[in-house]
Amino acid sequence: MSELELSLYNYSAAITTTTSGAFGIGSNLSWDAYQRDVYNQLNEALQKQANLLRQRAHIDAAEVGALVEQRNTILAESRSRLSPFGKLYSEILKSSADPPSLEKLLKQKGSLEAVLESVGKTRAVVNRLTVTMKVAGNGMIALQVVVSVVLIAMAPPKKRGEVAAGQAGAVIGGAGFGWAGAWAGCATAAALASPSLAVPFIGEITDGGACLTGGIISGFGFGMLGSSWGQKAGEDAYIGATRLHWISQ
Amino acid sequence: MSLVDWVNRRVIAFMRRDGKPVLAGDRIVVEGLRYALEDATGIAAYEADVYAGRLVCLLLTFADGKLIRVSQEDACWNDLVAALDRLGLTRVPSSEWILQLISGVHNTPIALGK
């Protein structure tokens, strides 16, 4: 499509590019926030079981051990469903390679009761961050949906198929590159920033601060790039598919 | 193990290549560098919000800009706390500041020295 044709019914390039970049990282943040919600709910249920156990006169070590094991399983399962960026950020905050055993927790906390008190508790800082990620991520997805729908609806009937194909490519490209970019940005920033230079005075979120910042910036940038390439690929594929002419003898 | 997990483990191993701080007498050793505890330009204690609970941590600052974080999980924790008490580098003894930290508002660090 020519620039003139596009400008007749399109948003400005700045708006569509920014929206696409935001969608790339937004879809990633929303996915991880959703997984975190599921994780929090499972842990809430676990904490309820632990609280019931605490109300009993006798607390059995085997039962507490089973809850700790359950918690470790929930952690491993939940983490396996995160995006590559989410996985890396989580691993920086707390490694899943060596989950705490009942013995280790007993040594740290001193009693079975103290272990039960926090067996299903999740990190407050990460929970607060997740709320922000969820709101921002969902907003970015909604914006992309609105822009795509308006672009398709406003396209001339003759061009509607091509625009729809382009928008589908933009969404797929934006998400794919956005997720990959967030992961790459997180890994690069985390590797380059020395952990000992992070000042934890503002809270321990700085432990993964470089990863988080690098991931969001890079996810946005790669999302824009992927969306642009995806749109072009979608339009080209549509043109290629609809303009094929079979030569009959 | 998936490619993502493999790369993530490599990144984290690279991030933590310097290893944990260790105490050698009245010096703390990290990244092959030795810092005398008495040379610390700032000492602060805070609670880190970690898996299933909170962890007491110390942050030592040095003149060259180096920040060394030691937590209760580190092997040198007890020796470090004892050394700070023995050298009188904190405004109050560890028995007091640990209590203040645990009973205080979460995420409010306490400046302990200099």
Annotate the secondary structure layout:
The complex is a heterodimer of chains A (249) and B (114).
Chain A lengths: L2 H7 L3 H43 L5 H20 L3 H10 L8 H8 L2 H7 L5 H31 L5 H33 L16 H34 L7
Chain B lengths: L2 H13 L6 E3 L2 E4 L2 E4 L5 E9 L2 E9 L5 E5 L5 H11 L6 H10 L6 E4 L1
Antiparallel strand pairs in B: 1-2, 2-3, 4-5, 4-7, 5-6
Summarize the structure.
The complex is a heterodimer of chains A (249) and B (114). Chain A has 9 helices and no strands.
The share of residues in helices of chain A is over 70%
Number of beta-strand segments of chain A? 0
- What would the principal axes of the Cα set say about the shape of chain A? elongated
Distance between the amino and carboxyl termini of chain A: 33 Å
- Report the β-strand fraction of chain A as a percent range: under 5%
List low-pLDDT spans of chain B: none
Structure description:
The complex is a heterodimer of chains A (249) and B (114). With 249 residues, chain A is mostly helical. The radius of gyration of chain A is 24 Å and the shape is elongated. Chain A has one domain (3-240). In chain A, 78% of the residues lie in helices and 0% in strands. Chain B is of the alpha+beta class and 114 residues long. Helix content of chain B is 30%, strand content 33%. Chain B contains 3 helices and 7 strands; from the N terminus they run H-E-E-E-E-E-E-H-H-E. Chain B has helices at residues 3-15, 77-87, 94-103, and strands at 22-24, 27-30, 33-36, 42-50, 53-61, 67-71, 110-113. In chain B, the strands form 2 sheets. In chain B, strands 6-5-4-7 form a 4-stranded antiparallel sheet. In chain B, strand 1 and strand 2 (27-30) form a beta hairpin. The model of chain B has no long low-confidence stretch (mean pLDDT 84). The chains are: A mainly alpha (249), B alpha+beta (114). At the A-B interface, helix 4, helix 5 and helix 8 of A face helix 1, strand 4, strand 5 and strand 6 of B.
